[in-house]
Structure prediction request, 691 residues.
Amino acid sequence: MNAPTVIAQPLVAQLETYRPTLPESVAERQRAACARFLSRGFPVRRDEEWKYTSVQGIANRAFTLPDVGEALPQTTPTELEWPHGEARQWRFVDGRLVAAPDEPPEGVTALPLAVALTDPFWQERFAALATSEHSSFVDLNTALASGGLCLRITAPVATPLEIVWQVSAGVAGEGASIPLAVHPRLLVVVEAGASATLIEHAIGDAASSHFVNAVSEITLARNAQLTHYVVQELPAAVQQIATHAVAVDANACYRSFNIQLGGRLARHDFNVHLHAPEAVAELEGLYLVGARQHIDTHTRLFHEAAATTSRERYRLIGLERGRGVFKGKVRVAPGAAKSDAQQSVKSLLLHPGAEIDAKPELEIYTDDVTCSHGATVGQLDRDARFYLLSRGLSPQEADALLIFAFAEAVVEAVTLPALKTYLTERLVGRLPDRDILEEQL
Amino acid sequence: MLEVKGLTAAVDGKTILNGLDLTVRAGEVHAIMGPNGSGKSTLCQVLAGRDGYEVTAGSVRYLGQDLLEMAPEIRAREGLLLSFQYPVEIPGVKNVYLLKAAYNAMRKHRGEPEADAFEFMALVREKMRLMKMDESFLHRSVNSGFSGGEKKRNEILQMLVLEPKLALLDEIDSGLDIDALKIVADGINRLRDPNRAIVMVTHYQRLLDYVEPDVIHVLYQGRIIRSGDKTLAHELEAKGYQWLIDEVAA
Prediction:
């Protein structure tokens, strides 16, 4: 086999000689997405939605695109440190499927993206929910999507489904290895009355400096339920943009946990459309922002029908000189009467160089709704701290417990015991005074 | 055990305690009463070491040491424990963690090894039974979502487990219905010990029917204006504070 020609240049330059990456059935959509991306380019800070997050470090950098049909990158699989127990696992390296369960659980059909797109069922769902309205990164993914998974859930499924998105150290180049730009795509359809738990776990080789531009399109039919865990633990030099487009039908419930721990830049967008009566969305999020990390999530909850409910709880911790950004938009459309939207965003700054910007945004176009939001940024609760001191705990112990408790609020709600234990250990490992916590917990 | 002399303290530049004297000996139970705003809660906070209170004059000796020089956690480890009028809700910190951390902090302070986990849990369960609290409470967050009565029972539970030398109870009876009051009073009576002193701050005579004090003090404008035995409480219940204030003013 000939060694692939490694072209490393900024993505915009590479798109000038664009060739669709997916089956012919969606080639037109891919070409159109490529053209739209080229006319719009990468978002800039002038765009309101990108005010706090610069992507110049992606736009100007040279990357290699994984060549379709190319041999798999040589990589040592990173051992997962959490006992995923009963979960069925699909593992991707640089966007390519490298391992899949022998047989998915009953009620689940799983197909690699390129295979699925030969089927009209998936063809009509590709790029249907995630559109260029969200950001030009969606177009970029649509144009360059090279791998991914399509999951169709047709019954209540108890076994958790886990996708591991792993990044390698890169392609061997002259001197340092060359980073890849990876564009994974995930499509999920949960049919009427069906339910599932999906874990997306992003990890990688510590030497990786890839750019990952992920898009997921998730459809919940009537009475469907999906619990969606996004656990981002990418290596310190990786930049990730992820767009999750979700449509929730009547009486269905979409629940997400967005756990942001790693990466250099991680921007996640959750666009959730509650488009039929009594649709429910519950969004939980936790960031630990360490040194030189920039973690940003934008959630947009669209209440488009009557009696829709959303609950949102985010906890952001600035541990070191890094930056956390959260913007939570709730839009209640005309006609979405009796809707109920509650948002709570709390931030904790534990380092003088840590910075957090948290912004709620409510747009309400109908009467008879219940909406509330609260955003706080600050230090630890002084009353709680004094209470603990008055019981003989040292200031250090009191702080350690209160910081842990702040983060634990989100992890506590995780319903998979193995994942909860894993995340608790991760938290304890990252927070100050881990020895105190390990002793207490 | 506790010797307060001429204690003067201010919050935001406003003097609340104004030359307060109080002596408490081991084995005694004191009740401090007084109208709203007389400085009862401030006294508790200053003794427990809450920041934001500025002591401008006077002294406090506790077990022969200068209490005001001690950090709040050291006061607690030395056996001075305050039960809060409004126990703070701490979501995410489980009761059992707090009890264990506090218990071990005190043992460590005395140079004792950490408690054996099994023995510690047995002790906690025994005390919980006394306070009529069920097992689930251990794994609930500290005071979080507790009713008023549960919060106060939790304060006394901590006292029973931590065994202070000086228990300061700030309005332990407020917000309690009669059943909860009896449980709390029963807990306080169990704390009575020749080696321990108890100081209860209260608005009402009611608590004193269940926990009989040795001494009653009336606090007014930051000073103790009258001390007496339990008959003073009955007199106050019948006549209010005004006659006493007038008498002192005269």
Summary: The first helix of chain A runs from residue 11 to 14. Residues 70-77 of chain A have pLDDT under 50 and may be disordered. The radius of gyration of chain A is 21 Å. The longest strand of chain A covers residues 195-204.
